[in-house]
Sequence to fold (116 residues):
Amino acid sequence: MGKVDVTASVDRIIPELMAAPLEATIVTVQGPIRLADYLVTRCVEAVVHGGDLVDPVDPDPEAQAVTADALLAVLAGNAPERVAAARRLPPAVWIDAATGRRAGPSELASVLPVMS
Fold:
């Protein structure tokens, strides 16, 4: 059906991720980053770009929550007074607005997107 089944790969790596030292620093092409931050970044990319596919991929609820929280943290650093307004949006709407995939509500328009 043209679908990729990554279940075996995910099942194999989960125990290693659960035991990983999340405070460890890893080195990427872009430079050093904490493992925890690297994993959150990959989660954000998977959730956001999964929705960009021709047959969009509905994100796992936990991955969607991690993504929404990460984008709220960016907003909190830039415009902490707007976090309450962003929290009132459903996670999928917040993610789309925070990444410029849809217009945000007027009270957030001046601070969005937080990532593009």
In short: The radius of gyration is 16 Å.
